[in-house]
């Protein structure tokens, strides 16, 4: 089902990787990125597409199982490789935000396939994240605090904490309105893009 030999690879000019625990606000950073000129690729969408091909429901438990199984079978960087294939096909010459890096192997893979790579982590407290996820309405969102904790532990076991620890920039998404956080994220992403364009001039 996953044909790694057919995947396209390229070197992207600028990649900003966005990481963070579930509900921290990664998707908000992605929306801010679109406002300032980035294309966005979501690693979670790649997992959802694979789950759909396998006939699996888009629940948290099911998507988590799929993510773990494909990494066990094809390597910890397999979702990054599939994501890069999509980026090379659709956005090869544009600055890209990749949302949802979860382990060090994925981080290293993208660093090896970008002329310039930045890592941005988004942080919010567990209570804030649970509140957001409880009202988001997505099929894979936790229905209880126990589900939420279980999901956090699965993400940390996958290596997410190590990735967050290596961030070039940390955005705190706590005690702010949505628009305030969007503006803060857009400012950071604009500055990264400005520096990149200046270096290329």
TrEMBL record:
One Pfam family matching this protein: AAA_18
Organism: Thermofilum pendens
Keyword Metal-binding: no
Presence of keyword Cytoplasm: no
Organism superkingdom: Archaea
Protein name, as recorded: Flagellar hook-basal body complex protein FliE
Classification via SUPFAM superfamilies: P-loop containing nucleoside triphosphate hydrolases (SSF52540)
InterPro entries: P-loop_NTPase
Gene3D superfamilies linked: P-loop containing nucleotide triphosphate hydrolases (3.40.50.300)
Gene this chain is encoded by: fliE
Keyword list, A-Z: Cell projection, Cilium, Flagellum
